[in-house]
Amino acid sequence: MSCEEGVNIARVGKKAPDFETNAFVEGGFQKIRLSDYFGKWIVICFYPGDFTFV
Amino acid sequence: MASVAARYQELKDLDVEVFSCSVDSQFTHKIWQEQELSKMVSGGVPFPMLSDTGGRVGKLYGVHDEENGVNIRGRFIIDPDGIIQAMEVLTPPVGRNFEELVRQVKAFQHVRKTGEPTPAGWQPGKKTLQPGPDLVGRVWEVWKIGE
Fold first, then answer.
1. B67-91: string of b/e by CB count within 10 Å (b at 16+)?
2. CATH assignment of B2-93, given 3.40.50.300, 3.40.30.10, 3.30.70.3550, 2.30.29.170?
3. Cβ of A23 and B50 within 8 Å?
4. Is A20 part of the contact surface with chain B (CB cutoff 8 Å)?
5. Do A47 and B50 touch (CB under 8 A)?
6. Are B2 and A53 in contact (CB under 8 A)?
7. Residue ranges of the domains in chain B?
């Protein structure tokens, strides 16, 4: 993965890289595609792992 | 995540969609929610918990730690045009500051609405600045640090 290959890496002022992924939502499982939420403000929080706390 | 979940309503009031994301599967998220998070926060985590097994999303956002196979603590604010307006990436031992997240969201929403840039440490209700030739070299006259 490099910029030369056109891979979109997150940077401020640039479009957020889109993705689709599995998610646990309100007791169930579903696919979430980030771009489905464009039009709203979005906050994404990455963290190292479940069952850890900082 | 529990600390963000506990104050989720403040972000919801600002019309913010929140997602958490780790390399755990959605099944692990379910067990964490049921066994632990729901006991720390009433109702548990109310926002979607994304599963990034393999770290594909973390790599796109520059927060994937290949050596340990996890996504490090990174927080991104994305505006309604899908543009990343802010990012904060921390090494594991230090946690996030929820107040600062909310302050930044409010400031970016203010800028988007009014076009007025917000100076250092700005909070809603505080002074903003009107950029232009007249302001160059004269910020000291119209704005004091901490104002």
1. eeebbbbbbbbbbeebebbbbeebe
2. 3.40.30.10
3. yes
4. no
5. no
6. yes
7. 2-93
Measured between beta carbons, the chain A residues lying within 8 angstroms of B9 are: none
This model of the complex carries an ipTM of: 0.89
| Contact check, Cβ <8 Å, B30/A22 | no
* Residue B76, pLDDT score: 98
Closest partner CB to A43 (pick from B16, B28, B53): B16
Q: List pLDDT tens digits, range A6-47.
A: 556 899 999 999 999 999 999 999 999 999 999 999 999 999
Give me the DSSP letters along chain B. Answer: -HHHHHTHHHHHHTTEEEEEEESS-HHHHHHHIIIIIHHHSTT---S-EEE-TTSHHHHHTT-EETTTTEE-EEEEEE-TTSBEEEEEEE-TTS---HHHHHHHHHHHHHHHHH-----TT--TTS-----SGGGTTTHHHH--TT-
